[in-house]
Amino acid sequence: MPAIPRRPHDSALAHSAGAPGPGDPRRSTGRASQTPRDARDGGRHSRPGTLPPVPGRRPFPSSLPAVAPAALLAAALLAALALITWQVVSHGALTAVDDRLGGGRPAPVPQFLSDLGGLPAAGTTAALCAAVAAWRARRRRWLPPAAAAAALAAAGAVVVPLKAWTARTGPDGLPLGDYPGYYPSGHAATAAVAYGCAALLLGAAARLAVRRLLAAAAAVLNGAVGTGLVACGYHWPLDVVASWCLSGALLCAVAAALRRCS
C-alpha cells in the first residue's frame, strides 16, 4: 500500500491555523513593528497619529500681543484720571500735593516753556509731522493727519466739560469769572497730544532706537511745559498730571491707528 504524502506547512496554512492579526507583535517576519500606527499617540485626541508640534498653528491671533498692552495702558491711565478727578472734586488727600508745590509766579524761562503748550506751537508741530507721515505712508495716507486731528479734538472735547464741571480755582485764588476752571490743564493736554503724536508719526517707519529717542524727546518737552505751567502759577500740579493721563490714553489710540498704514 503506497504511503500517504505529507503536506508541508506552507505560509497559507500557518496563517489560517491561527496567524497573528493586526496589532499583534508577532508578524510573519518574526519581529515586532517599530512604530505601530494603532499605538501612536500624537497628543491630540481629535487627530490620532499627528505628532506635535503642528507647524503653522498658533493658539491666538498674531495681532493680540501688540494690541493688548496698549489697551491695558489706556485703561490704567483713564482709571488714574478718574481717581484724580474724584480727589479734586472731593478735596481729597492728593490735593495736599498741590498746596505744597503750587503757587508760583510768572518768569521769563517758565513763561517760554508754558507757551510751548499753546496751540500755535504744539499744533503746528503736529501738523508738520502729520504731513511728513502722510507722505511716507505706504497706504491710507489720510490716516496720520486724521488720527492726530482726532486726538487733538478729543482732548478738547474732554478738557472743556471737565473744567466747567469741576470749576476749580487757580493757584492765585481769584474768582473764576468767565473762565470755566483750571482742571485739567488745556495747555498740558494740547502739548502732550501734539508732541506725542509728532513722535509717533515720525517714528512710525523708523528703527527702534529712533522711536525711543523721539519718545524721550516728547516726554522731556512735555515735562518742561508742565513745569512752566506750575512754576508760573497758571495751574496746579494735579491739573497737569490729569491732562497727561488723558493724553496718554488718546496716544494709545493713535498708535493703534497708525499700525494700519505702516
Q: What's the N-to-C terminus distance?
A: 101 Å
Query: What portion of the residues fall into strands of 2 or more residues?
Result: under 5%
Task: Give the helices and strands as they follow along the chain.
Answer: HHHHHHHHH
SS element count, helices: 9
Domain Phosphatidic acid phosphatase type 2/haloperoxidase: 143-255
Keywords: Membrane, Transmembrane, Transmembrane helix
Protein name: Phosphatidic acid phosphatase type 2/haloperoxidase domain-containing protein
InterPro entries: PAP2/HPO (IPR000326), PAP2/HPO_sf (IPR036938)
Looking at this protein, list some descriptive labels.
9 helices; single chain; 262 residues; 0% strand; mainly alpha
Question: Secondary-structure map with pairings?
Answer:
Blueprint: H1 11-16, H2 64-90, H3 95-101, H4 108-115, H5 119-136, H6 143-166, H7 186-202, H8 208-231, H9 237-258
Task: Characterise this structure.
The protein has 262 residues and is mainly alpha-helical. It has a domain of 149 residues. 58% of the residues lie in helices and 0% in strands. It has nine helices and no strands. Helix 7 runs parallel beside helix 9. The longest helix has 27 residues. About 5% of the residues have low confidence.
Give me a quick take on this structure.
This protein has 262 residues and is mostly helical.
